[in-house]
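Methods — Computational structure assignment.
A single polypeptide chain was analysed. Its primary sequence is given first, followed by the predicted tertiary structure written as structure tokens.
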Amino acid sequence: MPAPSPTASPPGPARRRWNAAGRGSLNRPGSDLRRLPTGLDLRNVRLVEGVRAAFAFGVVILLNIWIQWAPLLTMALAANLACFCDNGGPMRARLRVLTAFSVLGGLLWAGLGLIQPLGLPVVVPVACALIFACSYARVWSVQAQSAGNVLVVVLCIALDRPLTPEQAAVTALMFAAGGLWATFLALVIWRLHPYRPAHRAVAEVWHNLARLCGDLERLVVLPEPDTAAFDGHARGHRRGVRASIETARTMILDLARSRERVSDRTAQALLRLESAEQIFSALIAVGELIDSRPDARRRALAKVFLRRLRPLLVTIARAIRDDVNLDLDRLEHSIARVAEGLSEDPTLARLAERIVGRVRIGAKLSTPEGYRPGGTLTEGGSLDRWTRYVGPLRQNFTLASPNLRHALRASAVAAPALAATLTYAGAFTHWLVMTVVLTMQPFYAATWQRALERIGGTVLGGLVGAVLAYYATSPLAEAGLILVLSIVGFAARQISYGFFVTCLTPLVVLLVELLEPGHSSWEIVAMRGGFTVLGGVIAVASCLVLWPIWEPDQVRQELRRALKAQAGLAEAVLRAPPGEGRETAIAAQSREAGLALNDLEAALSRALQQPRAGSHPEVESALVADATLRRISARLIVLRHAPEAAAPEAEPWRAWITATLAALGADRPVPERPALDRGQSLVRLVSQVDLLVGTLRPGEIRAGTAAVGAVPGPANGATSQPVPHA
């Protein structure tokens, strides 16, 4: 068997399409780990959220044009910034975050305005301590991370000018009023469906399953199984489906915890997600059957099965997304037809029956009769304040934590930037500190991507903003353009960061012209572009100099975790006694193995972006090991449905497979290979384990095979000798 090539693109006419698919987005990671996930995810356009955000501060701006009272602009800015903090989710969590932001933002602005005249010795340490706290807030949640980032923006704006006690009081009150107005609008007046984000996440899981199914249909028609194509499929689709499943699971459980009970709709979402996860597991096994050089008949049967299955997955995904009912009676014929004619291939037939059963459940849950009565939340429960707030702070308060390193790095780099901008004060110098802190991320690869997207989006958006400002000759025209740009910007917030910045920059240009009259639009664009480029360079350089995270070390840790997870999955599949406990253990270990492989590939992707790390020998070995572990995981899922793999005579090999994976994960010597026939069902799995050992321990596998000698192989000529990684 040739060693897998994790990053090579398949040759032939499909190369261009494959390369285009290799660049993924944040929600759909691509197949090529060397490429930054800067693609656009157009399915995440949120037009209604954009209209709501524009209305939140547009009303206040129009009120200011009528009344002409300057504090209203502070209120409008607070309403705008509060919308940036709202990432959706359970109502209670959003209420906590938005209320805290509104109050803390007002106090922050007022307090820094009061101490601003005290000079650098007081202002810089206080501001750096606050930046550390805002950056460290990411340990709590994504919502807290967003609020912390926006509070950094408030901090930078607050240091622009000193305030008297009366001005500070008015600023604090108006900022809190603006934030609370946006909160009231989002959670009370213009309240989007509380279950919709969770159900959209579940719909995305089913849609990703349809994409995975479609890609398997493409692979099954290849004249010969293509190693690189299957590796790309595993990284581009299996990684994306697993990530979407975990995202949906988190959203559903957060929703349930916020209400402290499982409502009908929450139970419906959980059952849909459970069915989708079981379909995902079975489709992995189908992909392994296609990848294992099957005969023409199996390929033909698999092609027909996949072609019938994909439309059903798309139909259910759309029903969940649009929250509509399905006519189960009309759909039943298509569901039953999916598994017809597969009796010639018992393994494929068993997998198809399992998939069809879960598809039927998913379809039934989209009917009025498909709901389940609610109940109290017994698993997980609501978290007490100590666990929710203090626990994450303590767990991450170590230099081994990327979050603590990030907070230290942000505050350390912000100190000289603050000193420079306060010494050489200007109308736009605060953009330097904003860019440095907001561009900086815990990992170098994420910082590099954020810098590229922010710089490119700022330059392009600045040009658009300057042109629009040239034609907006009155405050009313500027306000109208601001409303339109707000709708576009907030609606595009989840498409990609670069696209969001491109849409946001024209809004910033027009807002500055409205709030700070007297500046040319081209001057604003030039200053913002210059400070963005300088801040991006500083942020990228700081990640390489200050408390850097050497990614090969992270790869080593994640690889060890992935090996241990695979050992647990092998133990559950190959050694556990039959029964309900075995199925439960397999499901749990399969999820753990999938998460571990996703984390390994995330570490590999970061390592390939870090200077000098991409060519590190451990990274190169881990790339091959990752592809091999994907195949081992898939083969184990196939064996879960293959009774012949439980034959008593294969027990020594089952024990050897489990022990070898555990030894690799624990950094122990690899056990000796049994001098027995492997059996037809374990040939491919043993070969993959041999390849894994040959990649990670080439000396041991050579010594082991030399000591044991030739092990009897199967009649079809497959060899037991692994192919070491060159």
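Note: The beta strands are 261-262, 375-376.
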